[in-house]
Design a protein that fits this description.
- The protein has 58 residues and is mainly beta.
- It has one domain (12-56).
- The chain is 0% helix and 48% strand.
- The chain has strands at residues 12-17, 28-34, 37-43, 49-56.
- It has a four-stranded antiparallel sheet with strand order 1-4-3-2, with no helix packed on it.
- A hairpin with a 2-residue loop joins strand 2 (28-34) and strand 3.
- The relative contact order is 0.37.
Length: 58
Amino acid sequence: MEYLPDDYEPTRLRVEYKKPAKQGDRLIPRRANANGAHLIQLTGADAVPHAVLEFSIL
């Protein structure tokens, strides 16, 4: 939650799993905003996405 604005209180969380992370993998969070939602993408060191988290307010 530290990647979201302090005053943001999402009511919906959608998670899209792309590729399983293995023990020892380093995940790098990337943040974006789209259509009023906050997106956090967890990518590996090779820039391949492992998961996309979408926080939004209904």
